[in-house]
Design brief:
mainly alpha
Length: 453
């Protein structure tokens, strides 16, 4: 068999490895977060109803990300572990199968987009203008979602083999193109028609397609540790599909639960006012500026953990975890301080009315208290994903968002004071971190301590 040199994930000093693996993804996630924020800033210039419509579309739009990224988690864990075990035929099979799964996933969402967009928005509002905006935006991003499935898939293949710099280039390029095209298509600059909310959707699609094309090119040209073949893509390995989804389905469900949570929160907040829902949408965009880099850090740690799990290097795993938790906590602490200090400035970026400022400033301050705790939970979750224990992440997510967050938010809404609703976030996060620590100790005892060291 062909001899290959040891991948850097097994030999590079751990802290340096995590920094080099994570920084590109954190940078690309920051740009992605910036795109999310800028996208909503431009939409908010149209009207508060336009911003509310995009907020109502988010839960179903997020389902696309759930399926794409959750499948990617399964591919990532299996591919990295196979490389660590020197099972190169298996890593190639996982890479090629992932492309077919991305294509199949797109077909499902195309059908949902055609037949379900209007009904989904109508289930949350009866305001005619919000309904029209929401149906238009959601229909476009669902029916043309092929770009995001391919983008996420090929970025995950690059991440799985440690090629995070190329993954960063792909993701950042797509996000930057999106940011540039947003004002051009929304407001009709440089001779383009003014498309309004539809322009925001088309800008998103355009960026995703360009990013996916770059992902294909960089995998074929630079990702020498896997071999992609059109012929092999359409020769699915059933056992590989099963393994991908054994890890991936809990991750898909975990992100999907976020869609159920946001849908439920939208319903709870619309009972107060559309402004309250718009505030929730703005919060979701702003928090991504801190959560997304931590998820980028997480994505950098997962292949390191998976590889060293396959190579049975216990001390490298433990060192990676300690360093990752410290970084995640620190990033989220900065987020809390900014939300507490200048909530009005943050809301001002979204053309906030006096009513939105009155509702939004206390909302941001109350919710941001939980950020550092969330950072710890996210970092611990990398263990579950890397070691094919994603069921634990699913249990934690269900407990946090469905068992605690939504019911507590609904109960607090019965007080008639919308500020009470936001307290559900720190309450739910305390439960989440307790569950995360419990399951981490279980994995540490049953899996990590059994390795050679």
């Amino acid at each position: 068999m062909e001899q290959r040199k040891e991948n850097k994930m097994g030999v590079m000093p751990v802290k340096k490895l995590i920094v080099t693996m994570s920084l590109p993804m954190m940078a690309s996630m920051l740009v992605q977060a910036l795109y999310n924020i800028v996208d909503s800033i431009f939409v908010a210039q149209l009207s508060e109803n336009a911003l509310t419509a995009v907020t109502l579309a988010f839960p179903l739009q997020n389902m696309i990300i759930a399926v794409a990224s959750g499948t990617g988690v399964g591919v990532n864990a299996i591919l990295s572990r196979s490389l660590g075990e020197k099972k190169f035929d298996r890593s190639n099979a996982a890479a090629n199968t992932s492309v077919l799964l991305a294509l199949c996933s797109y077909v499902v969402f195309l059908i949902v987009g055609i037949f379900g967009s209007k009904g989904f928005i109508a289930a949350q509002t009866n305001d005619a203008e919000i309904l029209e905006y929401g149906e238009t935006y959601l229909g476009i991003v669902m029916c043309l979602s092929i770009g995001v499935f391919m983008q996420v898939n090929f970025e995950r293949l690059l991440q799985s083999t440690g090629k995070t710099f190329f993954s960063m280039i792909s993701q950042m390029t797509g996000a930057i193109i999106n940011i540039i095209m947003d004002p051009i298509l929304i407001f009709g600059l440089f001779g383009f028609p003014a498309l309004g909310v539809a322009g925001a959707a088309y800008a998103t699609i355009f960026g995703q397609v360009i990013s996916s094309i770059l992902g294909v090119i960089m995998n074929v040209k630079f990702n020498t540790e896997i071999q992609l073949s059109v012929k092999e893509v359409f020769r699915p390995k059933i056992e590989i599909i099963k393994e991908i989804y054994m890890v991936g389905i809990p991750s898909i469900l975990m992100v999907s639960i976020g869609s159920i949570m946001t849908f439920s929160m939208n319903k709870i907040l619309m009972a107060f006012s559309s402004t309250a829902t718009a505030v929730f949408g703005v919060y979701f965009k702003l928090q991504s500026f801190f959560f997304m880099p931590v998820f980028g850090l997480n994505n950098g740690i997962i292949p390191v953990l998976a590889y060293n799990y396959g190579a049975r290097k216990r001390e490298r795993i433990l060192e990676a975890l300690r360093f990752g938790i410290t970084l995640a906590f620190s990033i989220m602490l900065v987020g809390t301080l900014i939300f507490e200090a200048i909530p009005g400035v943050l809301l001002g970026f979204f053309n906030a009315s006096e009513d939105m400022l009155a509702l939004g400033e206390p909302a941001l301050r109350i919710i941001a208290v939980h950020f550092p705790i969330a950072g710890i939970s996210i970092a611990l979750g990398s263990v579950f994903q890397a070691f094919a224990k994603s069921i634990y992440s699913l249990i934690i997510s269900v407990a946090r968002q469905l068992v605690i967050l939504v019911p507590v938010a609904w109960l607090l809404a019965q007080t008639g004071n919308v500020n009470m609703v936001w307290l559900a976030y720190p309450i739910a996060e305390i439960v989440s971190v307790i569950c995360s620590i419990f399951f981490f100790k279980k994995v540490k005892k049953e899996v990590i301590h059994e390795l050679d060291g």
